[in-house]
Design goal:
Layout lengths: L7 H6 L9 E10 L5 E11 L2 E7 L9 E4 L4 E4 L1 E6 L6 H6 L2 E6 L4 H11 L7 E9 L15 H13 L4 E4 L5 H14 L3 E3 L17 E3 L15 H13 L3 E3 L2 H8 L4 H5 L9 H6 L10 H12 L3 E2 L15 H11 L4 H8 L1 H6 L17 E4 L13 E6 L2 E4 H15 L2 H6 L9 E10 L2 E12 L5 E9 L5 E9 L3 E10 L2 E10 L2 E8 L3 E8 L5 E3 L12 H9 L8 E9 L12 E14 L2 E9 L8 E9 L2 E6 L4 E5 L2
Parallel strand pairs: 1-4, 1-5, 6-7, 7-8, 8-9, 9-10, 11-12, 12-13, 25-26
Antiparallel strand pairs: 1-2, 2-3, 5-14, 14-15, 15-16, 17-18, 17-31, 18-19, 19-20, 20-21, 21-22, 22-23, 23-24, 26-27, 27-28, 28-29, 29-30, 30-31
Helix pairs in contact: 4-5, 6-10
Length: 652
């Protein structure tokens, strides 16, 4: 098997000189956050070994060390902190380009946590990543990959797993129930993890605002995300009072609420030039349903909370629909300014208040001797106009200076790579020995190619067959999945190997009588071994393709259809044991899942056989059904349409 990470190397190699430097910013204006927020003029800031060595009055007669950066007429502020975003392989430099030197990744997945570890080790140049765990939710799930907790024991298990996996905080999802929520708060306190999350709207009003939840993020649970409307105004004041009494932070992410209110103008949102730096398949996936969404609800919450003294923080929801990574940070600051929040309060929320929130105030958040050298040098005074936060002359991240020229080169490199994803994707494919090529496919979202799959077949000496699927998906969640099935009339074994940022995953399925034995290595859990009971005639199925592409491997469908005898208008049920590899579920459910597939043959079309297929309870979740229309010719799949946006077509 060929395990390649070639595609990552040019991008990361361009960034990997993550070595702190000695440099000095001389004769500049330095933001002070003590008492009143102001700039102290004529200051010199010296950096050594990644930290601020000194902040002193500029003296032209004093000899300065290392690289000298002339700050005359410029404004030096602490690195900005995004308190709610969603990172991926390509987003890190976009944050740095926009002055964001620390990000809170919520909610987390193993590949994102691995990015944190690589940044911490100096292997990748990126912002400091505060890593929040996968969401803890309760039935019924909001989306098909969401794992749900129903009991106190399950809640404790999820919290302990979050700690064991090395995450920095627990995240409670909006649909969590009271039993699970209260136990999450208790267990998180016991093991020393803070709790972030949405407002748990399923709890009674009096119990939604507990002291154990440090922040309420995204305004979910505080307003109706279908309409934008919120509580009566008198209840908003009660909520604000509870937040203030409990020292609870509010991260409103107004940018996504503004985007929802502009859903009827999606063409103008898509035309934004900063979206050129977003991943093609992510842009293709972004959509908003025009619903006359009202922005007034979100604004009312923020305005009343600010007036009542609640601690507000800047979070972007970066990577969500029409919220570009990095660039949306200044948009969120502008949203605060448009509501009448003073620029000094906005800057403090973006820096020192956020550092206190993360318990990192001894390290970052202000420009003081001994703190980490996370700095942003601006051409304009942001206290006079918050939009001057965009006028970046340079960024220091952990003491490494990135000039304007360097930042522009990084942006150019990102755009170049995004225009060459096809060439990069091809590097993952190879012709396996002793296999014959069966078919190749492209996977598209709204017409944008997002990945490929190739099928190969081998006839074994004992008369059985081995089918091999090689599947490569563009980022986010850059992954290469190889799945092998061994079968004759029925599947007897399956091997899955997946490479990605999160590491190497290996699964081996062996069917024996009415059971399947599954062994392997999953980065989320480590090594494991389990036994799964099976229904007769069960088929083994490989993992779903990737995030934002909710579909099966074509190899799965090929195996299910290979020996299927079915008449027109007949429906058959096929039991399946599926490799899940779903980080948002917990325990064995995240690795395997039992489910049923329904396949109905339609009338032939243009000489091809046509099948409707569905999987009620997709990913083991009864609230969701995966549906598709399959067309085959001479036993080979020609195309699959999963919904209006996702399609797979045979290329050869």
């Amino acid at each position: 098997m060929k395990l390649l990470l070639i595609w990552f190397l040019p991008f990361w190699a361009f960034q990997t000189s993550c070595i702190a430097q000695t440099f000095t910013v001389k004769n500049t204006s330095v933001l002070s956050l003590t008492d009143t927020v102001r700039f102290n003029t004529g200051q010199t800031v010296s950096i050594e070994n990644g930290r601020i060595k000194s902040v002193r009055k500029y003296d032209p007669d004093v000899q300065l060390q290392g690289r000298i950066i002339d700050g005359n007429g410029l404004f030096l502020i602490p690195g900005l902190i995004d308190c709610y975003t969603h990172i991926h392989e390509k987003s890190l430099m976009l944050d740095l380009v926009n002055g964001v030197t620390t990000v809170v990744n919520a909610i987390g997945e193993p590949y994102q946590h691995q990015l944190k570890l690589k940044v911490d080790a100096g292997e990748i140049l990126g912002p400091r990543i505060y890593s929040v765990g996968s969401p803890i939710a309760s039935p019924a799930p909001v989306y098909h990959t969401q794992g749900v907790m129903s009991t106190e024991g399950e809640a404790r298990f999820a919290v302990r797993e979050t700690k064991r996996l090395g995450y920095d905080a627990v995240f409670t999802y909006v649909n969590i129930n009271e039993i699970v929520y209260m136990e999450v708060l208790r267990e998180s306190k016991n093991i020393g993890l803070p709790v972030f999350g949405h407002t748990p709207f399923r709890l009674g009003f009096e119990n939604r605002f507990q002291t154990g939840q440090l922040s309420h993020n995204n305004l979910v649970g505080l307003l109706d995300i279908r309409s934008g409307y919120t509580f009566p105004r008198d209840q908003l004041k009660v909520i604000a009072t509870k937040f203030k009494e409990n020292n609870t932070y509010l991260v409103p992410t107004l940018t996504i609420h503004k985007a929802r209110s502009l859903a009827h103008k999606q063409d103008s949102l898509r035309s934004s030039r900063v979206l050129e730096y977003e991943l093609p398949r992510q842009r293709a996936y972004w959509h908003l349903r025009p619903t006359n969404y009202s922005l007034s609800g979100a604004r009312d919450i923020v305005k009343i909370c600010y007036e009542e003294g609640v601690k507000l923080l800047i979070g972007t929801d970066g990577g969500f629909h029409f919220v570009p990574h990095g660039f949306s940070y200044s948009m969120e600051m502008q949203n605060f300014s448009e509501m009448g929040i003073p620029t000094g309060a906005i800057l403090r929320a973006a820096t020192l208040d956020a550092a206190y929130y993360l318990d990192l105030d001894k390290e970052i958040g202000s420009i003081e001797e001994g703190k980490v050298a996370d700095l942003v040098l601006l051409k304009g005074n942001p206290l006079e106009d918050i939009n001057n936060i965009r006028l970046i002359e340079g960024v220091s991240v952990r003491g490494q200076w990135l000039s304007r020229e360097r930042l522009d080169k990084e942006l150019s490199q990102i755009k170049k790579e995004l225009n060459n994803l096809d060439n990069a994707r091809q590097s993952y494919f190879y012709k396996p020995k002793n296999f014959s090529h069966l078919a190749s496919y492209v996977i598209s979202i709204n017409g944008v190619v997002a990945g490929e799959e190739r099928l190969y077949k081998r006839v074994n000496q004992n008369g059985s067959y081995t089918l091999l699927s090689i599947n490569a998906i563009d980022p986010p969640l850059q992954r290469i999945t190889e799945t092998e099935w061994t079968y004759s009339t029925t599947v007897t074994g399956m091997k899955v190997t997946r490479t990605g940022t999160e590491g190497l995953t290996k699964l081996q399925f062996n069917m024996r009588s009415d059971s399947c034995y599954v062994d392997g290595l999953v980065p989320l859990f480590g090594e494991f071994s389990l036994k799964q009971r099976l229904e007769s005639s069960s088929v083994l199925a490989g993992p779903n393709t990737s995030v934002n592409i909710d579909m099966d491997l074509i190899g799965n469908l090929h195996v299910m259809l290979q020996n299927l005898k079915i008449a027109v208008n007949q429906t058959v049920e096929i039991p399946v044991l599926k490799a899940e590899l779903n980080s948002e579920e917990w325990g064995n459910d995240s690795i395997v899942g039992n489910m049923k597939y329904l396949i109905k043959r339609q009338a032939d079309e243009n000489g091809m056989q046509v099948f409707d297929y569905s999987c009620p309870g997709f990913n083991g979740d009864p609230a969701f059904t995966l549906k598709g229309v399959i067309k085959t010719s001479s036993g080979i799949i020609e195309s699959v349409v999963f919904d209006e946006s996702i399609s797979v077509k045979r290329t050869k």
